[in-house]
Amino acid sequence: MMRKILLGLLALVVLLVVALAAAPFLFKDKLRALAHQQIAQRVRAKVQYNPDDIGVTLLSTFPDLGLDIKNLRVIGLDSFSRDTLAYLPRLRVGLDLMSVVKGQQIDIKSVALDQPEFSVKVLKSGRPNWDIMIPNATAAAKGQDTSKVNLAIRGWEITNGRLRYEDLSIPVRLDARGVNHQGKGDFANNVFDLTSNTTISQLTANYNGIDYLTNKQVAAAIAMSMDLNKNLYTFKENQVKLNDFPFSFAGAIGLPNATDITYDVTFKALQTDFKNILSLVPGVYNAQFKNVEAGGQVAFNGYYKGVQNKLRMPGYGLNLAVTNGRFKYPDLPREAKNINVAMVVDNPSGFTNNVKVNVSKFHLDLGNDPVDGSVAIDGLAPMKVDGHVKANVNLAEALKVYPVPGLTMRGQFFVDATGRGIYSKTQMPVVNAAIKMANGYVKSDKFPAPIEDINLSGTVVNTTGQMNDTYVNLPQFHMMLEGEPLDGRLTAHNIAKPVFDANVNGTVDLTKITKIFPLQGMTVTGRVAGNIAAAGNMADVEAGRYQNVKASGTVKANNVTYKSKDLPQGVAVSNAAATFNNNQIVIQSLNGTAGSSDFAANGTVSNYLGYLFTPGQPLRGTLNVTSHNFNVNEFMVDPVSEKSTATGKAAPAKATGVVPIPKFFDLVVNSKVDNVTYDNLKLTNAAGTVAVKNEVATLKNMTFNTLGAAFGTTGSYNTQDLAHPKFDLGLNIKNLDFQKAFGAFNTVKALVPLASQVQGIFGTTFNVSGEMGQDMLPKLATLSGKGLFDIVKASVLQSPVMSQISSLTTLPELKNLEVINRIVNAEIVNGNFVVKPFDLTVGDVKMTVGGSNSLAGMLSYVTAINAPTGKLGNALNSKLTQLTGVSNIQGTDRVTLGLNIGGTVASPSVKLTSGSLKDQGKAIVTNVVKTKLTDALLSLATKNKAKTDSTQKATATTQQTSQEQLQLEIQKKKLEAQEKAKQAIGAGLNSLFGGRKKAAAPADTAKK
After folding, report:
1. CA angle at residue 871 from 895 to 793, to 5 degrees?
2. Is the dihedral of CA 930, 934, 940, 943 positive or negative?
3. pTM for the predicted model, two decimal places
4. Which residues of 340-355 are buried (b: 16+ CB within 10 A; e: fewer)?
């Protein structure tokens, strides 16, 4: 009996193992198909994955069936088409096994993500990139079955993930690395508890370009009550730890309708030791922090309460108080002590402009040096401010309190400043500020030389609150950099149109200065010596009354180099010398290289004061530039991003990008270059004048030689729209070889494909306009123009077109043609090259040719051939009799044949279409060409109208969106003003009856 039971159990185990092993094979195709369907129907994004990377398992996830998807990438659409929203190296989904077996509705019970990367964005318009899921109602309206998948999740997990969040409408950026998260909750029910644990190894938070948190650690354990019926989510027990600073939340978040989110949340510190909040200060949380001696108490609490929708944001408040704080690093002799801070932030309306910040107390002693301050801010635009800061710090002693590795400082730094009043576009607070540095010294281990003997003193004073009554006085500035002094002074007042008096004298080593004060993305080296003085009124500068401005000086530069991301090939100036006065700069000499190109220049530049100090005023002047070798290819930029595409290494084989014309230049450049490299061409003896103004370069009498021919051009090149640069050129070319032209110019290949079968020399006078592409080659579909070709000598040999004409007409002399001294007129219309009728004579055979070819290489030509009837073969007699109506065709003297030429150059199609006893070849061809020109012009007009209609539609859409945004902003401003008035009335009544309002009293939502 026992033996039978054991055998039965063994058989059951074997069956179970077989079932576990076989299940993935049984359901794999079904689940793959379901995944494909759900992604295609429910996701409004581009989802990339390999179907072979979708696997199914049961052994490792029993009793659930595991769906394993690897290397899945989600890319946005439209505005986010270049952005990856999510990259999931491994996604594991746990499915209820019985729901898969039944096949009616599959329940998702768990989700796990290994090393996911999320990049979440919000545009300035408020549009997010995560809104990619198609709602059930929308899918159902399309007839799609929305009941295939059911979210019955009970657990989820993220391992070592990364989350990047950027909201341009605020603007806020977050970067969380090393994110580990586990959560539990039964989403099969509508009311349940959700618990989660989260850790982040590095969290950086940036607001408006400033990092407020840098590489902080986060640990959070949160429990929430989830009520899906009411869309209400209430915080229960929770604790969040940011570095060593723990705090907690209480309250609830709700989704009462489709547009609103409600918040009623308070938060508070869970511990009151000053050392805990000290860990949030940048640079403090390091390996030494745990040994830092610290004391004092902290009070921290706040609230976030109200409605969030298109018009409103929740109100918020924050209280922070530090009492008798102190800290001391164990290896340093001094301590920071008597740290006392009282700060209140309050904005119950949620409108940013209504915020109130009051730092009523800030004091600390850095060793024996006190630092005091206070500030009260009411609103932002305009901002009512009342603040004061005073400090007198010995910098060497400060470093004995707070460690800054690799930095040495000495000297006495003093500041005493007060500001009280309104700050706006037209007003500023009444200010009285003094700053002084004596015997300063700064040296960093990262940089080669210290800045020594820093002495400066200055004041900023405004006694009326009017901007133009602000006086800045820096009577002296002095520093030494490796024994080289730099001295200066500055006085200025009248901020709107400053009245100034300044001078700077000394030598600057750019290499050392830029290592001490790094320029992001740029490298600068070299030495500049100067003696510069300027005094005057900005009103005179803006009005061009430079005679009222006193400016003078000399500047000399040696071995100056400059490189940047936009100019990776770099510019090097071996030597330069210039003098200037209030009117102009005289460049006496300037020699250098740009990438692999050399240059030398001299000339004059005027209106430099207007250019430097008044936005929109141009830099004017005349320059003479010479070069032995210049490579244009190294200066191409991407037409959309406006960034350089040069590698900084060897010049690219072909030009890639658009050469931009500077916006605020009004310069005339007389140039002479011995050798120019442009795209795949080598130009020699290039000379002429280029006038640069308003992002347009106008060419005058530009000449150069290339391909054995002489080129001359006039016209313009316009980059006002850098994505769509335009040109309008007049070309004058002499003695250019057909085969060289065909091989070198893509325009010739596309517009004149017949040139591939022509040997000889030609010249042209042609005017052409259109748009340049990213490769600095014309966009052929945009071209228009007209002109003439002077064919000096041309031989057409072994041409499929002429071979077919010769065979069809039985005229062997037409198989090979030679054309000498013939003028051909042509036009470019709507992407078609139209050849106007021209005559040829081959022995006693006369020809008239005309027609067009398209950008696709399709020929559409017509030719009329007038030949002696006796030279035509008998095979044509019946066809000519039919076409002319003359039965005895051989009894006539001459006959005119009309032929249509279609197909392509390589595979032409020639057909006989007409015959006449009259010599009317010219009329036949002319009428056909006129028709082709008319059709091309009509097509162009239609295209332009469609483009105009599209532009008008896009403009109307933009205007509508702008109008909606404007109305939204008007409503926001109205509500903002109402809330501010309520606050003012409440404050007034409170004051009248002797009450005192707590600015940031948090709501007691925990009791609720």
Report:
1. 85
2. negative
3. 0.65
4. ebbbbbbbbbbbebbb
